[in-house]
Amino acid sequence: QKTPKIANFINGDMKIGGYVQTRYTVGPSKKVNDSITSNNAKIAMSGKLVPEVAYKLEIGPHKSPSSSILYDAFARAEYFKKARITAGQFKVPFSEEYLISSSDIKTADRALFQGTLTNEYSLGLMVDGDILSNLYYAVAGITGPDRSTAETNEAKDVIGRLVYSPFGTSDNETLKGLKIGTAVQSGRQPRSSNNEGTRLRNLGMVKYEYKGLSLLSEYVRHSQEQIPGLDDVKANGWYALAAYKFPLNFSKYKTELEPVLKFEQYEPNTDVSNDKQNMYTLGLTWYLNKYFYLMANYQIRGEQDHTSNDRFILQSQVKF
Fold it and tell me: Is 236 helix (H, G, I), strand (E, B) or coil?
């Protein structure tokens, strides 16, 4: 009774989980190295210190000398379900694909524009919740750069996100899985004149899930001021993904096979005519059980210089 926090841990309130991904990559071009890599490895601890205060700590190995091992590191006050307060380092409430764990995304790689027009983790404060039973919101103030990048200015980014489920309260199971979302992110970053310029990002999202079917599409528009009052650099990117899980009944475990098709496009500068990038991903994932999968992706990459950059990726994942 005198040590409730310790008692919570002893009673199993703290959950420990993680995953390890191993990848083999090969391509017809010399631009693609034939390689075997540990693509991702994370371990996380989460739970509640008291019924109204949750926490999560997630770490993983360095991917580069400058990167941090720390991913999620936050505490969340859940006293008010319509206004949960999260403080620390957390996933930025902007892109839906980034909000999905790397262990649960449908393809080996995220969209081409992710990490350039968006960021995944940042430090700050967030308030989120369900305004209505079918309308979710999130408002966050963050440092701006991703977790591995040093803060370059005193300005903070502000993010607003809304996700509407038009049939969320309906009894029609076919329509219930439809979600429409939008997000905006405003901040500042260095520009060519050695001072700071404004940056604005807008996002639109459509998502649909029904039984084994998953559909997801996002569009991001990025505008960054370069010359004060005269010039903005604009970029955009979008993707559309479709996947379907087929159950396989030859094992005592829940075994599923999931074909995936994804098309994406990224334009780093809309004023430049030869920098557009397209990619098709043809994928097939075999979920042997809830702990292990084998994923095969073939990426068909179209670039302006017509240099072959296609690649085949075979990835395995163990999750616990």
Answer: strand
In this predicted structure, the answer to whether residue 306 has a pLDDT above a threshold of 70 is no
Residues 188 and 181: beta-carbon distance below 8 Å: no
In this prediction the pTM is 0.89
Instruction: For residue 260, give both structure tokens.
Output: 């995936």
For residue 40, pLDDT beyond 50: yes
How many whole angstroms separate alpha carbon 107 and alpha carbon 98? 13
Spatial CA neighbour of 233 closest among 115, 149, 117: 117
Residue 28 CA to residue 210 CA, distance in Å, equals 37
E strands within the chain?
15-26, 35-50, 53-59, 70-77, 84-91, 121-132, 135-142, 157-164, 178-190, 196-210, 213-227, 231-244, 246-248, 255-267, 277-289, 292-302, 311-319
Which residues, in sequence order, are CB contacts of 1 under 8 Å at separation 6+?
none
- Residue of 148, 141, 139 lying closest to 119 (CA atoms): 148
Helix (H, G, I), strand (E, B) or coil at 135: strand
